[in-house]
User: What shape does this take?
Amino acid sequence: MAAGEPIIRPSSIDHPLYEQVVAACRTVYDPEIPVNIFDLGLVYTIEIDAENAVAITMTLTAPGCPVAGEMPGWVADAVEPLPGVKQVNVEMTFDPPWGMDMMSEEAKLEMGFL
Assistant: This one.
């Protein structure tokens, strides 16, 4: 990573499929926490290229999470059926590590932190 680059790459928020991909990510839940992975802040980046290939970089609440091996597949299974999506690649990272400050206001409210 070059100096000055953001730790988390920016998402393709201007792409027409972005909101649909976010909505699909919101259908996936961490089994131990009653909040979807997007609002938990586990989805770091959603990149969508000109061919509508979707690359998602995500993390888990902890590296030892019992569903670590399954979660990327759950996310891909939620996003792939969307009309127009060519393919989905889900990459797991623990850099930067997830923290509760990454949760949305809704997630913090749901979990009683607000």
About this structure: Residues 18-110 form a domain with the GMP Synthetase; Chain A, domain 3 fold (CATH 3.30.300.130). Helices lie at 18-25, 37-40, 71-79, 105-110. The chain has one domain: 18-110.
